Amino acid sequence: MPELPEVQTVINGLQDTLKNGVITSIECNYPGTVIYDPELGDEPFPSAVKAYERRGKYIIIHLENAHSIIVHLRMTGKLVWSTVGEETSKHQRACILVGDHHKIPFIDPRTFGKITICLTANVGSYVTKLGAEPLSPEFTADYLLQKLSRKKSPIKTALLDQSTVAGLGNIYVCEILYRAKIRPDRDSAGIRLPKLREVVKHTKAVLAEALANNGTSISDFRRIDDKTGEFQNFLRVYQKKSCPLDHPIENLRIAGRSSFYCPVCQK
DNA sequence: CAATGATCCTGTCCGC
DNA sequence: TGCGGACAGGATCATT
């Protein structure tokens, strides 16, 4: 499940491999995976990469010719830097062709991932309703208090909502709430400022640690060279039987999502 | 307007 | 060994 650290890891990989290379075309191998904005101007390819950007879980590749490519990996998507001629995965849903000799297949068994091609000026219309970037100075306890004070949903659900904070998914929210010692089913609005400071502190810490470890590979996530990340080795509650203090972990279903937590450590 | 539930989809795992 | 069913879940859409 690619979340912020995994998405950033993919972008870091693109910066090391694709760099400012020329994208010659993007082929679509599964209906609906590649979306062309109706306002698209001229033929967007070929064009060299100008810059990379991440917003929440979106990978944004800006091209020199004022077009942009927005990639969302959803649950099982991955991009793998490859050489033309390498065999094609049966789960390849699209393919970014680079120069004359390279390709970046978009492999996504569950087919939820999307690649959108649009004018750079229109990127905002696809990357909408996103809250603050959790690693930015904008993400503070005061910011969270303002976002959560009127919410009726549990804290777990509120943190998964991309309009609260952009880039968190199920794994990291479980880990953050464990570190902040908050039960996932607690009422968002009832959490006071000192606790929210803990949430903010641990959010930034967990994401930074995961980033330093190239993300979490629970199932499908892979780096651009198809290697796994390493942060799965440091998870404390997600899919665990017991927490680091040896208390049994429970799994609560909240808003249809599994929520791993320690009933002893989290109140 | 906000919260909830269904939906998309396939590989994997479990029980019988 | 095989089969049916539950499960995994990010974002979007429809419904309450």
Main sheet specs = 10 strands, mixed
CATH architecture group name of the largest domain: Alpha-Beta Barrel
**Termini separation (Å)?**
27 Å
Write the CATH homologous superfamily of the largest domain: MutM-like, N-terminal
| Overall strand count | 12
CATH class wording of the largest domain: Alpha Beta
CATH topology of the largest domain: N-terminal domain of MutM-like DNA repair proteins
What's a concise summary of this model?
The chain is α+β, with helices and mostly antiparallel strands and 267 residues long.
Jot down its keywords.
alpha+beta; N-terminal domain of MutM-like DNA repair proteins; Helicase, Ruva Protein, domain 3; 2 domains; 10-stranded mixed β-sheet; 23% helix; 24% strand; DNA-binding
Description:
- The chain is of the alpha+beta class and 267 residues long.
- The protein folds into two domains: 4-126, N-terminal domain of MutM-like DNA repair proteins, CATH 3.20.190; 141-261, Orthogonal Bundle (Helicase, Ruva Protein, domain 3).
- It is 23% helix and 24% strand.
- Strands 1, 2, 3, 4, 5, 6, 7, 8, 9 and 10 form a ten-stranded mixed beta sheet that branches. Strands 11-12 form a two-stranded antiparallel sheet.
- A hairpin with a 2-residue loop joins strand 3 and strand 4.
- The radius of gyration is 19 Å and the shape is globular.
- 40% of the residues are buried.
- The structure holds a DNA duplex (16 and 16 nucleotides).
